[in-house]
Fold this protein.
Amino acid sequence: MERSFAQEVQLLKLGDGEVFHGEGILAVTKALLQAGVSYVGGYQGAPVSHMMDVLNDARDIMDELGIHVETNASEAGAAAMLGASINYPLRGAVTWKSTVGTNVASDALSNLASAGVKGGALIVIGEDYGEGASIIQERSHAFAMKSQIWLLDPRPNLPTIVNMVEQGFELSEASNSPVMLELRIRACHVHGSFPTKANRAPPISRRHLIENPDFDYSRICLPPATYAQEKQKIEVRWPAAVDFIRKRKLNENFPGDADDVGIIVQGGMYNVTLRALQQLGLADAFGQTRIPIYVLNVTYPLIPDEVSAFCAGKRAVLIVEEGQPNYIEEAAHAILRRADVQTRLHGKDVLPMAGEYTGEVVLTGVAKFIAAAAPKGVDTDAVAAAFSQLTGSKARAAELLGAPMPTRPPGFCIGCPERPVFTAMKLVERDVGKLHISCDIGCHTFSTLPPFNMGNTVLGYGLGLASNAAVNPMFARRTLTVMGDGGFWHNGLTSGVANAVFNKDDGILVIMKNGYTSATGIQAIPSSVNQSDHRSPDMSIERALDGIGVKWVKSIYTYKIGTMVTALKEALTTSYKGLKVIIADAECQLARQRRIRPQIARDLAAGKRVVRTRYGIDDDVCTGDHSCIRLSGCPSLTIKPNPDPLRTDPVATVNEGCVGCGLCGEVAHAAVLCPSFYRADIVQNPTLWDRLIDRVRRSVIGWFQGAPAPSTSTWTR
Amino acid sequence: MDALTETQSARGQDTLPTRPVTVLVAALGGEGGGVMADWLVAAANAQGFPVQSTSIPGVAQRTGATTYYLEIFPASRDRLNGRSPVLALTPNPGNIDVMVASELIEAGRAMQNGYVSPDRTVLIASTHRVYAIGEKSAMGDGRFDWNRLVEAAHQLAKQPVLFDMAALAQEAGTVINAVLFGAMVGAGALPLSRQACVEAIERTGKGTAASLRGFEAGYNRARGTDKLTAPVDGKLNRGRPVERVRAQFPAETHRIVEEGVARLIDYQDIAYADTYLDRLGPVLAADRDGGGGPGGHRLTNETARHLALWMSYEDLVRVADLKSRASRFVRVRTETGAKPDQPVAVTEFLKPGVEEFCSILPPALAHPILAWARQSGRSFHVGLHVRTSTVTGFLLMRGLARLRALRRRSSRFLDEQALIERWLGAIRRAATQDLPLALEVAECARLIKGYGDTHKRGTENFNAIFAALVDDHAGLATGARAAAIRACRLAALADPEGQALAKSLAQI
């Protein structure tokens, strides 16, 4: 794991009346323990990776409470695990990144929602939307609607989030339906506090076992039970949910004096909306607002009488609903029509249909709404003036800066073992022409960004090879697929490799075997070398490929560019018909550095001989063309002002972040770039022999260097 | 759960602040932004202030930009009668009190996004640069204008606090986060006491001493009134006064011309430097005749600069010479941070091809070999890993450097001189028509640089532009011709595949 949560785990032990200070996603974890869950699981992915990390770091607490922790192999596995709550009164929770994780999980989710649950089933979804998101931009809302899973979207402060976790389990049990708790990226990472309660040991657990299995035909997803289940959803579970939400007042009303208008917000959008009102002089720092606000901490289902009661008597109401389609706005229109309430609804007319609702977006939307609705007693001119004052400096900045700032797309880390593979591909393309490359999900997807700009499609996690199935037969030259080892185990083995072998595909698959799901924070996968006691240490990609019948497999150490180029060319040209797999084998450099740094420090302290390797560039040899950067993109390979008084283009330089992976030197060699690169091996704690040899070399070389140069120049450097 | 009852109960306390203090931090991965946010939260908590922080790491943790956003309500909880301020998770334009940028482009981005407002923002920004990939991978100079960023910061911020915090962090042996934190406190931007901030660092427990040194350095620097100076250019000037230059060339060209003389003596010999001045004389005359004197003899200066570089073209001999110098051995030790008693083994990555070998042979030998190599359609390269730090490796390089004596008779030398003469002739001819046109012709020399394919590509582009626009006026007036040459030159530097240049040439 990228981060250790040993300290944070202590927060999970807090008891009654203590105060938790920490991150949102950890607060949710604590809330699960307070709610007495019997089992937890999930699949890593920003922004909920930390929850999986913490669960794994907190094994002793979990064992003490008898909670089962599962590191699910995919979101589908996690969703299916909730099946334990169908027959038994077990509270369980799983987590994943959404909407991609929900997509993967949706088969199990549909069945789960149809069967219905006895024990509370909670899905904590990290809604990866907007700034910082790494996936396609969609809403999880649609999944809730199609399967009748209730969707919680709490106000983004820890007391409310924690309360909604506990209420969520009760709602799930009261309505026999699974519940989703949606947290946006910033809410997952929000740092705040809440008063804690003691953890509750679940009544059924690994410590208190079930004796007799429950059989109930109505819980099985097969006709005719499925027809009855659908009816039950509508006739029993939905009304029960609406009742519960209304009675527990899960949605909140904040009145204001300008009550001829109002605002309906998703819970997660409350703070940003209130800040906009405050900036426009319509609310104070404590949430006292002049415009009444109705907060939907539950965004599905809506409570029709609450919506119509809020709107009744108001001329205009703004709905702040992030993302599209605007399900809530459309539903509110229908509710008001049915109740014959004539309030004018605003929403996507003053706010954008697509994209994150950032501070600026909401501020602009609210200002437009105020201008259009003109609430009684509000000085709309003052509001407009405040708005233009707030946003004025942006235009001024654009003028002063003259050009947009250069962007910083994410890229491969310093010394990343995946970078050389794409460098090799670029070199192969020089010789054979452009290749079609089907990409997958993982760090390697960064190949599609500068400086590589390689890869034609991304179709989903572990689906790279499957997405290539109809591409390869359409090309005279073979095509490539890149997949990570995380994707391989998630879905790639079956949907990709088995499918390709079964259909006698002739493509090429490159598997990036770096040992972890690195992009999500370096979590372990089945083929990770260093496994904890809770997982099987004996699973290998090579044996899986062999077992499934892949005959052409080459494993190549990624930093050997020349070898990789040869292997790729061979795969492209061999007469062998069938799937060709190249395993690009080298450990994630972040993980490796974390592993070896303490060891090196110990060795150095103990006086052991340690060789440190660094790369460098002779700035008087470099002419500032930067081909090396275009073929590598290593963050430690950068530029600096040219020290040559006659040159203006900056020279390339290797900064102190270099971990000595050697790619830049290999590239200079393989691509015949320039002779500027050098490798320096610095011997720390040198032995007597090292020192002796060094002394001899330095004095002989020094003697020659001291000798006059052939041109008798006095101006040498 | 109704917030109204909470807020109404405590109305009438006018002394409370009306809004939180907002802090937006724009950092890059690995700069300890998260730790700094934790320090701020801890210091605010210690003073009993409600505080909230959040962040957008996402995929940005992999080398991209990351932001942290904090709100601190500067009144202790016991004054709030149980009420809680509503703290936002996203920064709003016009609503930032303290904008922190760990690097100058990130400060620019903050301004671009409206997070720096003249009526309230204290802008704490480090003036060093971490170049973005687009700036780094440009074929020439893709860097964003440093001065423009600094100027904008001074115009837009209520209180700009700008200095090189990376350098300060390095001096203190710590990460930039500590210096930024110190600068925030030193600038008086936070409602937090220095004591509380120091204690927050002390409680971290890890690397505390170094962090405190960095904090102190940032704190003191931000309190001082040092005027910001542009970074030193770090140029290694070698030029010395040369009599002939002083006698024949105007003062404003001395720096460049004398630098060129020094370079060419270092590269070949004094006679070669004389050739340089012989070649430059007619250009100066044309510059003068064209009225370039009052403008500082730009044509002479630029031609002098490019001519010196071109005449000292990089060949195997030159590279071996540069790599075997004593000063280079010292530089490697400094750059790699090797301690005096630590042996350093240096390995060079050389891969000379048949062209490089032929370039030091006389034309009579070189031409047939090259013709044969071209005919065979293969590329011949010898991959060498030369260990210059060993006696044999060093002597190999030194031996190659000694081939300098043969350079004047080599095929490459003769080819380059011919191309140089062609270029100089074109400059002189253009100068008789129009100085700006001559300047554009002179600037074309910058396309020719580098080794192997890079050099070949540059020369081809140079020839293509010459054929289309210099040898032939292409039916254009001088002004339009200068503009077209300029456009083509920039296009040649736009992409290595030459697509932009082909497009520009086609448009003529």
Notes: The two ends of chain B are 72 Å apart (CA to CA). Chain B has a mean pLDDT of 91. Residues 135 and 143 of chain B are 5 Å apart (CA to CA). Chain B touches chain A through 151 residues (CB under 8 Å).
